[in-house]
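Technical note accompanying the year-one report. For the benefit of new consortium partners, we illustrate the data format agreed upon in the data management plan: each record pairs a sequence with a structure-token string. No post-processing was applied to the example shown here.
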Amino acid sequence: MTRAAERLALSQSAVSHKVKRLEAGLGCDLLSRRAGAPLFTTEGERLLRYARRLVALHDEAVLSLGQQPLTGQIRLGMTEDTSGGGLARILGRFTRRHPDVAVQTPVSQSLAIAAQLEHGELDIGILQLFAHRARPSDRILARDSLHWVKSPDLRLDLSRQVPFLPFDDNCFYRHWTMEVGQSQPPGLASVLTCPSGAGILCALHAGLGVRLLSTRQITPEMEGLSEPLPPPPEVAQIVRIGSGAGASAVRALVDEIATELGQPTTAQAA
């Protein structure tokens, strides 16, 4: 309700009233109001599918009648954890609306994506970074906190270095950990390097080492840590436009991603 109110420039109570009025008109509950239950009821999920089809058809009609068609090629870099879900739906819809726009979507690590944007090798990048390093021009999709986690099966011997599970050299978690984490005893040691998030999670569950994960990635099977590891900074998931990328198709896709998946405002640099 809060996010919908911000998007619509209405109060939260006004949005709640509109939803209740819609439910009364349809004669069924659309939102589940029980703690721990899914957001939508079965009827709400059905209405959501119809609503998305209606909005997509409306936008398609407006684009076909009122604007010049978009053309060109977009190189969109993204991280592994953002390559599915809502983003996949947006890309599918975008390519259907704009058949003359070719979208290429390589998957890579955040630091690699940032470097490719700077070198003009990508037009758009969806990546993660520490929140205080976001630029004023970045579009913020989400902010989250980081936590040290391990498997309950892993017994740490604090007289020795803590085993750490990073990605490869393009992992900014690894850069920060090797710099800050080594500043206090017992320090950390990389015991497995893997470019795949799935591979890192398998190693984590097997008890091979500790890992930094965002709140949304933590599951009940994981055990949180505090001492003796340093508290990590907040992270942000952003959309960034590459240097020299100014095509109308690029701006249109960025607007769709930022409006649907995150905050439509620009980041404020710390």
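Partners are asked to follow this layout when depositing records. The chain has eight helices and ten strands.
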